[in-house]
Amino acid sequence: MKTLKRGSYLFLFLTVIFLFFSSVAVKGETIKALSFGTSSVGSAFYTMSVVIANVLTKYSGISVTVEPVGGSDATVRGIGAKKVDMGMLNASSAVDAYFGRGVFAKTGKIPLAIIAQGQDSLRQIVARSDAGISSIKDLTGKKIIARRKALPEMEKILLVLLEAYGVDKKRVTILETAETNEAIEALKVGTADAAMIPAGVPASFLLDLAQSTKVTFLSLPEDKLKIVYERLGEAFHTGIIPPNTYRGQNYEVKTPAMASVIAVHANLPEEVIYRITKTLFEHHEEIKAGHAGGKDWNLKKTLEHPPLPFHPGAIRYFKEVGAWGKK
Q1: Residue 40's domain is classified under what CATH number?
Q2: pLDDT tens digit string along 69-113?
Q3: What are phi and psi of 135, to 5 degrees?
Q4: Beta strand segments in 74-111, E
Q5: Domain interval for residue 58
Q6: Whole-prediction pTM
């Protein structure tokens, strides 16, 4: 009987120890759960966020729940208002929020830090081949889809390019759509001559478009891309579409792009973010296996040209593995 009691006490003691170490204690509080904001259900960001959140929950001892709050601007506002703890968003929204500019000029700066960078999201211009558009200068008198409330950087990029090429914006009809599928359909039926398409490489809807419709992907020279980066800031860099990615595209395409980032509220405890960052990178192979875009959420990509400061918890992990400060 005494042996049974001793065994029961030992089991109870070990259970308490396990529960203690399965969460993160900070300043007397135990962090057991985090909310992960992202784009709407079914989007590339949503599906990628679900894979990452599942891995974080499985190995970090912290339950991470995905919250579909809308586009990148909505996600970063959610972080600022502490409705979500972290989120996946494009670098443009993150940078604008951090510096309190653009759509965040009125509301002011949002205290953000990043822990990782992932797949690029290109802002590629695709034109119907029968529209006779092979350069930005050919957009005079044409209709192009490049306006979307959720992605204000699209029109900004186009306006900078029109100015760089000396094209009068009044002579270009800029159309608005609410989602990419509308733009693809407009190119198919010819109600638009061209469209700026936000997507990674390859994009399934562009593969489908190129199969059914002859299209031209506009590649931009370095001097024009440099103007975009000078005007729109550190969120942008050059994205590449390799030759033969799409039907009829037998040449390399260079276009503005921005990285996806996982951002967190800057005030989240270092220990929490250290544990989340460690889990993210130590289980990269599982994330890679769970989503085609998972391969890009790696340490090398993360440390290349970060658009914002890293959270101290993330830096602690980078130093631990000897990656911090490497050129």
Answers
A1: 3.40.190.10
A2: 987 889 999 999 999 999 999 998 999 999 998 889 998 999 999
A3: -150, 160
A4: 86-90
A5: 28-118+260-320
A6: 0.74
